[in-house]
Structures are given as C-alpha cells and as structure tokens.
Amino acid sequence: MINTIINLKKIEMKNLRNILLASSLFAVTALSAQHNWQEKGKDEIKNETTTKTLSFYENGKKVKNSVMINTMVDAEVKTDPKDKGQVNEDRIFPPVKVTKTVKIDRDADDDIDEIIKFSYMTKEKTDFALVSNGDDVIIAVEDGNNLKILEEQNFKMKSQNESNTTYVYTNKKGEEIEFVVENLKKASMSK
C-alpha cells in the first residue's frame, strides 16, 4: 500500500513537472511574439527578387533580354477606425508603397547593362515594371516568367529634378499612378 502511494506521488510530480514545463514554454512563446510585433511596428514589408524575360521586336527581329527585379512592398497595417477599442478590429488596406530595382542584361555577357530604381503607390494588384527600349522609359507588367510591354503607353513625364524623375501612367479607368524614378544607370554597351 505504501508503494502504491509513493508511485502515485511520483506520477503526480511528473504531471506537475510537465504542466509547469508546458506553461513556461507557452509564456516564453507568447512574450517573444509580443516582442516581435513591437519591434516590427505597424508596417508589413515584403522583399523578393525574381528573374524575368523581356521580349520585343527590334528591326523585325525578336529580342529577348534577361531582367532581374527586386521588389520591396511596404504596407502600413491599419484597422478600421469604426472598430477602435474593440477586441477584433477589422483590417483595412491603404495603398502600398512598391519600390523596385530593375536590372537589365541586353547582351550575351553576364554584365548588367541598365539599372532602373523606382517607386510608386498603388491599391491595384497589377505588378508594374519600368524598363527601357534603349532610349525611352516604358512600362511593362509582370506576366508569369515574362514581362509584357503595355500596348497603351499612357505614360508621360511629369517632372524632373536633380534627384529623380516623376512619370504618370493613366490606366483605362482614368486612374493615375505616379512612378518616381530615383536612379537610371546605363552602362556603355559594346558589341
């Protein structure tokens, strides 16, 4: 009988130890998650790099360029003001700032021939890219592994200063998107 009582005490101690261990683990995880949220602030940032192919016709010949695009999307996390103070506030999605660096390789070597860094604010899901045809900046949309140059280039220079150039694109609905080109570098292309 005494052995049975001692065995029950050992089982109770094991259970108590497991409960304490699980509680401690849960508390550390909860505090860590809270700490990460505070460090992150109220922004969500997504950063990715993809490689696409840009195809177009030049002098009747189809030309393919390799294009590497680094995209950083900075979205402010906001909740609906109507839900202020409630436990389960609805999230609203304001325009996001998209910053892209487009690196274009126009020839057979491995060197980058052109770099365009730009940013824009958008609510649309369309993923724009600014590229050049050698002379002019043109607008394209990402289409799978390819970049598709928009047929309607309602794209005009709005302003230019020492640090950037602003272009305005007007879509079919009449909505305007401003693209701020911060950097446009062309390497000397030798063939």
Automatic annotation (TrEMBL):
Origin superkingdom: Bacteria
Q: What is the name of this protein?
A: Uncharacterized protein
* Organism, scientific name: Croceivirga radicis
